[in-house]
RNA sequence: GUCCCCAUCGUCUAGAGGCCUAGGACACCUCCCUUUCACGGAGGCGACCGGGGUUCGAAUCCCCGUGGGGACGCCA
């Protein structure tokens, strides 16, 4: 049987690293199993969904390289859900409810204040035909709940092992609102069946939903897929990811010049017992991927760790792999320049720092004016090449009887304004004769 | 409040009663390499949440605490 997974975001916001992880894990599992990966846009909530967010999601996935073999959107399938509505109604498991959202909210608050779980009390089940006729006459369009069986519903989860929930601990879910508009719970189950999804890999926030979805799937005559619920990601200090959307949205990581493969590398292994390694391609990340290695504890996503990985990946990338991205960031960098500064970059956007060093506005650090004056006097004339620095410092060394750090550090600071950076031999010609003279003029 | 789940170095984790003076990876520190930084090489620091049991023996099993995560929506 061909494995088929899906990533099913709702286009109501931007993707963050938590979403990206679920997309990636589904993609990796499908690819590794020789299966199919599907992108499904869960946009049953028409009011909150937007085309702009849908585009953003597709862009983000493309950036990460998570290509999909099939795509669908739920708003195109309302006709199908309408058929299911009739089918479920005929089965007797669907019942109309007339409470307003406010009434339900109040009920929950009362239950909670009494220390009881906020479960739906099934009051609508006690309605008589004449009650319903009266309510309908008042013009109230009912919402429809699915009557859960009061029994254990269980499954063998790929991550959590045997899991079960008792129906009495769950509320009868609303499947259709305002007449017959489908909601997520219904559409998701129908789509998983219709598109023959074999493995549903998602966050553990869906664990309790799974019992409901299995009951629903079986009521529709389907066979539930295999489920895998991975723990959610938290921020480096245990904070909720969505609260940090500012810095952990894929969009902002792109803006910072973080490599897609750094994100993929981290996300493909974080929370598993396999070591996190810098992968240059998704193929490499797929090779050692083992979904059974994922644990059950909440893992923390640390930006610092991401940047370390990013640096390691950046140090291995040829100019051709980054030139387009550099342009997209609005920077102009030659291959020579790239090779010179590459080992000193953590993020692509760090290029600016070295561009400034080779620009006109740099503020030199002069620690020893007399020495700098001597250096200027011995500066070789242009044209320069990669041997100029060596010749210059050799001459300067014998003249001033300085060597080692005492010899080159004052020069590095005067010429770059920093005490670390690329090899001065290659950097010197990139700064250029005129700027060097200017920086050494004290 | 109720129902699930989890609890080992800073982080991700290995560990399924003796193989554990608890292993690895990343981070960190030191040294070597290097006319800086980085890379690379060699070392080092560093953890079983607490309390009770069970057992000859517990990181490992049980109970109770405590802590953390998730769920309980006409969102997904």
Give a quick account of the main beta sheet: strands, pairing sense, barrel closure.
4 strands, antiparallel
Please tell me what the overall shape is.
elongated
Report the structural category: alpha/beta
Measured between the Cα atoms of the first and last residue, the distance is 76 Å
Helix run count: 20
The overall strand count is 13
Share of residues in strands = 5-15%
Compute the average pLDDT: 93
Computed CA radius of gyration, to the nearest angstrom: 31 Å
User: Which strand order spans the largest sheet, edge to edge or round the barrel?
Assistant: 4-5-8-9
- The percent of residues in helical segments reads 40-55%
Catalogue the unreliable spans. Answer: none
Summarize the structure.
The protein has about 450 residues and is an alpha/beta fold. The chain contains 20 helices and 13 strands.
Description:
The chain is α/β, with parallel strands linked by helices and 442 residues long. The chain has helices spanning 17-32, 51-64, 78-91, 101-113, 129-137, 184-194, 207-219, 245-248, 250-255, 260-269, 282-287, 303-314, 319-328, 335-341, 351-357, 369-377, 388-400, 404-416, 424-431, 433-440; strands spanning 4-7, 36-41, 70-73, 94-97, 143-146, 152-157, 161-166, 174-177, 181-182, 199-203, 226-230, 233-235, 299-301. The protein has a 4-stranded antiparallel β-sheet. The longest helix has 16 residues, at 17-32. The model has no long low-confidence stretch (mean pLDDT 93). It binds one RNA strand of 76 nucleotides through helix 4, strand 7, strand 8, helix 6 and helix 7.
């Amino acid at each position: 049987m061909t494995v088929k997974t899906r990533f099913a975001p709702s286009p109501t916001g931007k993707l963050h690293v938590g979403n990206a992880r679920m997309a990636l894990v589904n993609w990796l599992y499908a690819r590794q199993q020789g299966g199919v990966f599907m992108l499904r846009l869960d946009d049953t909530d028409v009011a909150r969904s937007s085309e702009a967010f849908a585009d953003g999601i597709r862009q983000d996935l493309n950036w990460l390289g998570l290509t999909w073999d099939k795509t669908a959107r739920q708003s195109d399938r309302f006709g199908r859900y309408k058929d299911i509505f009739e089918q479920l109604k005929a089965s007797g498991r669907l019942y109309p409810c007339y409470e307003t959202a406010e009434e339900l909210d109040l009920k929950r608050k009362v239950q909670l204040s009494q220390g009881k779980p906020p479960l739906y009390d099934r009051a609508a089940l006690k309605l008589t035909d004449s009650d319903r006729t009266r309510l309908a006459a008042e013009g109230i369009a009912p919402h429809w709940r699915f009557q859960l069986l009061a029994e254990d519903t269980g499954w063998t989860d790929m991550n959590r092992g045997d899991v079960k929930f008792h129906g009495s601990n769950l509320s009868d879910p609303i499947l259709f609102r305002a007449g017959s508009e489908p909601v997520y719970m219904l559409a998701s189950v129908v789509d998983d069946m219709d598109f023959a999804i074999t493995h549903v890999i998602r966050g553990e926030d869906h664990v309790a939903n799974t019992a409901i979805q299995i009951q629903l799937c079986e009521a529709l005559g389907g066979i539930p897929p295999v489920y895998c619920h991975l723990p959610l990601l938290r921020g480096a200090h245990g904070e909720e990811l969505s609260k940090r959307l500012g810095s952990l949205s894929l969009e902002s990581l792109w803006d910072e010049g973080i490599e897609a493969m750094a994100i993929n590398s981290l996300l493909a292994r974080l929370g598993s017992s396999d070591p996190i390694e810098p992968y240059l391609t998704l193929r490499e990340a797929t090779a050692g991927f083992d979904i059974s290695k994922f644990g059950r504890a909440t893992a923390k996503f640390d930006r610092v760790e991401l940047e370390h990985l990013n640096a390691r990946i950046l140090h291995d990338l040829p100019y051709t792999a980054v030139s387009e991205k550099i342009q997209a960031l609005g920077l102009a960098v030659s291959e020579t320049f790239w090779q010179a500064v590459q080992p000193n970059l953590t993020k692509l956007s760090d290029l600016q720092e070295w561009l400034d060093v080779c620009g006109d506005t740099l503020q030199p650090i002069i620690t020893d004016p007399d020495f700098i004056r001597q250096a200027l006097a011995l500066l070789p004339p242009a044209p320069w090449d990669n041997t100029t620095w060596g010749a210059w410092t050799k001459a300067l060394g014998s003249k001033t009887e300085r060597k080692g750090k005492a010899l080159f550090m004052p020069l590095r600071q005067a010429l770059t304004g920093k005490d670390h950076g690329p090899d001065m031999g290659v950097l010197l010609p990139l700064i250029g004769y005129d700027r060097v003279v200017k920086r050494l003029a004290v």
